[in-house]
Every structure is written in structure tokens, then in C-alpha cells.
UniProtKB/TrEMBL annotation:
SUPFAM superfamilies: FMN-linked oxidoreductases. Transmembrane segments: none annotated. Belongs to the Dus family. Dus3 subfamily. It holds the Pfam family Dus. This is tRNA-dihydrouridine(47) synthase [NAD(P)(+)]. It comes from Aleadryas rufinucha. GO terms for molecular function: flavin adenine dinucleotide binding; RNA binding; tRNA-dihydrouridine47 synthase activity; zinc ion binding. It is an enzyme of class 1 (oxidoreductase). Gene3D superfamilies: Aldolase class I. It comes from the Eukaryota. Residues 39-277 form the DUS-like FMN-binding domain. It catalyses: 5,6-dihydrouridine(47) in tRNA + NAD(+) = uridine(47) in tRNA + NADH + H(+); a 5,6-dihydrouridine in mRNA + NADP(+) = a uridine in mRNA + NADPH + H(+); a 5,6-dihydrouridine in mRNA + NAD(+) = a uridine in mRNA + NADH + H(+); 5,6-dihydrouridine(47) in tRNA + NADP(+) = uridine(47) in tRNA + NADPH + H(+).
Length: 384
């Protein structure tokens, strides 16, 4: 049989974008977290050792610290470290921050190939000037075209659900979340978390849970988690009655996951826990051990663990023991008063003095290096 008579073999031809779209799964895996307690991604303090502590106390869902997409694309090892997951984190996501559809989509595609997560979150809630002025974080709420392209682009390349965290709006008395949320749902997001304050408010006002409830209604059937001022199990109960799918626990100035990580236990067991100073010190010891395991037990690892322990102590010192409170629970925006603890350790842990935090770190990690100084990253804004 001559070559000219040979049967032709059909070829597929070049792979087109349309073919790739067809090859993607028809339906993403659903994010089944209805009614669960979600530990917010906390910049600086929401590191892996801290998340392990919160998991032990009952956090159901955890998320890595905000990672900047351009830093990830440049291969910065410190940024990639933020995405590391501990095996105890059974429902775990990562949070990305960026201002442009191309870089955010490329980054999502990269993460889809390289890391094991249950969801990817877009940070559209970060209020800080450095992020806002570059068009990221809260600024995306005012850049609807870019926002849409980012959500659609990332959603198209991810095999896992895409979620979005937003605020009520940018300006103090101009709520826009209720207008944006239905569009986020149309663009393909699987869930929205709403912080009940605007960018301008920061922590100067209480979170607006009536507005969160309104937004939960317009979000349906897409789940909406509420965030803001969950300081006790009573607050959590009230929040769940507002029609949200679940609640996110964040830093909550002056109380919250950073001040009392056992808040998750209080919510699940419906009680106030008058935790002793020795029990709290044991938590710090566990954090230290987790830190040395995560960052290393050499000199560099010890000092990195110390740095993050001190950052956490700048929040922990604001905890007022239940047994010393005149009224339960402690309220938002109450500056912690000076008090004398029921023992030396309780008084030491209540100190607002950096030298005392360093003293606590030395009890756990040994003496600080010569000429050691520490300035808390979040202290300047802690009582704004």
C-alpha cells in the first residue's frame, strides 16, 4: 500500500484557551463551613504557631497571613513562608493582596499548582495607606472593573473556591457593600466575609451588625460570614442570629483571638473562662515550642520566635481576667485599666511595659542578645 493510500491520522492541533477552559472541572469543590468559627488572617501575628494554638482551642477554619501577590511571583521566600500549612489545619486557606488582574490571576494559577489549600481569599478589606494608595485592599471597592477582572480571572484558574473579604465601604457614612456583594456572587466567588466597619472608621466605632445582616440577605444563596466585635460567646450568639453563615474572629481591639485565643472554647462551650495566669503561661510555652519547631532552634530561630512572641504579648497584655471584671464581658474600645493581678505572674502579664514583655520572653527563651530593642508593629494604632 502506497504512502498516498495510508489512512490519515487525525491530530488535535494546537491547544487553545477554549480547550483549556473545557478541560477544567465543571464544578468546584464546595466550601462546607456553615456555622463554623473562622480565625481571620492576621498580619504579623497570624503565623503558623499562633494558628496551632487557636486550632487547639476550637478554631474550625484558619487562613494564612495576607501575602502580596507580586512578592510571591518574585519568589520571595519570606512571602511563600506565609502560605505554609500545619497538618492540624484541616480547613485552611491563603489570602492574597494585589491591585491588578494579570498579576493576581498569574499568582492564583501558580498557587493552584504548588500548594495544598481548601480556598483562596482576596483581601479587599486592608485599610492601610501603603496598600490602599497602590489600588489594593479596600481601594478595590472603588475600582469595580479591576475588582471584577481579578475575581473572574482568579476564579477561572483555581480548582478550589475563591472567597473575598471586604468592608462596609471606604468612607465612614457611605455603605456600599450591599451593592457590591451581589456582583461578587455573579463574578464567581464562593463566599464573602464582611467586616462591619468602613476603611475610615478603623476601630473608632462598633461594628455595624444590622448592616451585616442586610448584606447577608442580599448575598444569599452565597454564604456571608460576619466579622467585628466578637468578644464573648454572647456576642457570637447575637451575631449568628443576624442571618450570617458563620463568624470570623479577628484581632478585635481590645479583645479577640489575639488577646484570648481561648475565645473559641468559650463560644463552643457557652461560658466565660476565668483562665489562670499559669494556664496562660503554659499557652505561651506551647507557642514558644511551636515557634522553635517552625522557625528553627538555632540563634536565628530563637530570636524570630522571640520577636513574634513579643508582638503577641503586645496584645495579650490587654486581657483582663474574668474574675477581676466588674461587668461581663469586657466591651469593645475599653482601654484596659491598670490592675493588680491575683498573683505575681498575672500582674506581670498585664503590664503594658515592653521591658516586662521582654522579661516574659526571657523566662521562655533565655536572655535577649546585647543591645536588644523591640518596637511593637501594631502598638501605635492599638487604641485609635
Amino acid at each position: 500500500q502506497g504512502a498516498e493510500d495510508a489512512p490519515s491520522i487525525p491530530t488535535l492541533g494546537p491547544l487553545t484557551d477554549e480547550d483549556v477552559t473545557k478541560l477544567r472541572p465543571c464544578e468546584k469543590k464546595k466550601l462546607e463551613i456553615q456555622g463554623k468559627l473562622y480565625l481571620a488572617p492576621l498580619t504579623t501575628c497570624g503565623n503558623l504557631p499562633f494558628r496551632r494554638i487557636c486550632k487547639r482551642f476550637g478554631a474550625d477554619v484558619t487562613c494564612g497571613e495576607m501575602a502580596v501577590c507580586t512578592n510571591l511571583l518574585q519568589g520571595q521566600s519570606s512571602e511563600w513562608a506565609l502560605l505554609k500549612r500545619h497538618h492540624t489545619e484541616d480547613i485552611f486557606g491563603v489570602q492574597l493582596e494585589g491591585a491588578f488582574p494579570d498579576t493576581m490571576t498569574k499568582c492564583a494559577e501558580l498557587l493552584n499548582r504548588t500548594i495544598d489549600v481548601d480556598f483562596v481569599d482576596i483581601n479587599v478589606g486592608c485599610p492601610i495607606d501603603l496598600v490602599y494608595k497602590k489600588g489594593g485592599g479596600c481601594a478595590l471597592m472603588t475600582r469595580s472593573n479591576k475588582f471584577e477582572q481579578i475575581v473572574r480571572g482568579m476564579n477561572s484558574v483555581l480548582d478550589v473556591p475563591l472567597t473575598v473579604k471586604i468592608r462596609t465601604g471606604v468612607q465612614e457614612k457611605v455603605n456600599v457593600a450591599h451593592k457590591i456583594i451581589p456582583r461578587i456572587r455573579e463574578w464567581g466567588a464562593s463566599m464573602v466575609t464582611l467586616h462591619g466597619r468602613s476603611r475610615e472608621q478603623r476601630y473608632t466605632r462598633s461594628a455595624d451588625w444590622e448592616y451585616i445582616a442586610e448584606c447577608a440577605r442580599v448575598a444569599s444563596p452565597m454564604p456571608l460570614f460576619g466579622n467585628g466585635d466578637i468578644l464573648s460567646y454572647e456576642d457570637a450568639n447575637r451575631a449568628m442570629q443576624m442571618g450570617v453563615s458563620g463568624i470570623m474572629i479577628a484581632r478585635q481591639v481590645p479583645v479577640g483571638a489575639l488577646i484570648k485565643p481561648w475565645l473559641f472554647t468559650e463560644i463552643k462551650e457557652q461560658r466565660h473562662w476565668d483562665i489562670s495566669s499559669s494556664e496562660r503561661f503554659d499557652i505561651l510555652r506551647d507557642f514558644t515550642n511551636y515557634g522553635l519547631e517552625h522557625w528553627g532552634s538555632d540563634t536565628q530561630g530563637v530570636e524570630k520566635t522571640r520577636k513574634f512572641l513579643l508582638e503577641w504579648l503586645s496584645f495579650l497584655c490587654r486581657y483582663i481576667p474574668v474574675g477581676l471584671l466588674e461587668h461581663l464581658p469586657q466591651r469593645i474600645n475599653e482601654r484596659p485599666p491598670y490592675y493588680l493581678g491575683r498573683d505575681y505572674l498575672e500582674t506581670l502579664m498585664a503590664s503594658q511595659n515592653v521591658d516586662d514583655w521582654i522579661k516574659i520572653s526571657e523566662l521562655l527563651l533565655g536572655p535577649v542578645p546585647p543591645s536588644f530593642t523591640f518596637l511593637p508593629k501594631h502598638k501605635a494604632n492599638s487604641y485609635r
